[in-house]
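Protein 1 of 2
SEQ + STRUCT:
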Amino acid sequence: MKRTNQFTNPWQEKELKILNNVDLTNNEVAEQLNRSYQAVKIKRLELGIKAKSEIDYWTDQEIVFLSKNRLLSNKEISEKIGRTEQSVSLKRNRLGLSQLSKNYDEFEIEYLIVNYHEKTTKEIAEFLGRSISSIQSKAYELGITKKSEYWSKQEIKLLKTNIKKSNESLSKLLNKSLNQIVYKKAHLKSIENRTKIIDEKIDKNVPFSTKGKLNRYIDVLSVLEVGHSFEFLNTEYHLVIQAKNYLSEKIFRTKPETKTTRRIWRLN
């Protein structure tokens, strides 16, 4: 049976009486009224009703919303998903998803430069938790355009062979603009760094640093070959799941490895 929600179905007086029963959890009320858990939670918060204590369970959708909206304040997020500001703040801290500054940090700029010609603006915006217009404005500020010339395999090979030459020399050698040389070098450097990080983290099973854990897991899973796997800490399971969900075109499977770790395989 399809559940109703607060937007398509106004709340009736008899429903409000059940809402006011503080001995019922949000889940119990949702079951009785055939409404969604989220709708019940939002309505109770709106009315200032403190429900019976229950596990503070965060859905995958809520966690993804947090990761994609890092420019929003705790208050703005709490209003969007029907949680208290304190709950949002605690969850952000636990996941390492604190609110981003409106200024772009070094990682974001590098990610934008490297991926602007490889991914859609929407994909980049979702990954960095910024708006599409913000990404477009920053790209314009950096002089990046979607109208980038195609790089042949021979050109990339020639660039790698002469990588130590100045950008000006490479520009003349390859008949490319300085911007194109800079962006392609940054792209190649990023791939090299990612490969190094993946080798170190997977082979030695070293935990990721706190900053950028989610981004690193996305990098690892994006290049993981079919049939290959790696081990990770149980405490970082939520990050791996977020990374897996981001790469929806790939299929992965996880299972417990030890008391404190799990293992993830790529299936396709």
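Protein 2 of 2
SEQ + STRUCT:
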Amino acid sequence: MLPLKHIGVPVAEIILTLMLSLRFINLVFDEVRNVALGIVSRRINWQQLTTMETVDVLASYIRRIFKNIFRHAEQISQAMIVRGFRGDSNTHKIYFLSGSSIGIADFISLFCLLGVTSAALLSDYFLF
């Protein structure tokens, strides 16, 4: 997308919007799945409903989906504000892990975990 930057396209804004959209798509699918499970669990007999009752039931579920989606969007917005995002996409940088970040502290922690686990297993073995 960098070539678009040379002709004046706000690339940083587009990238930020795409990344937020990717995060938000999961939430939308989860909400639709939860509402679909709610419909199935209520065991609605669709054949006995009139057309207006069917439209009313579907409208209430669509309303619930949008209400939950907007609630999640507000929570994401509040989380971004709390973490210091103020709306300028040029100052919001995304850092990808380029190399291994395993250090000596990680090895010491793993060694201690292995020691505690082996001590617990050996104590169970020798006590019985």
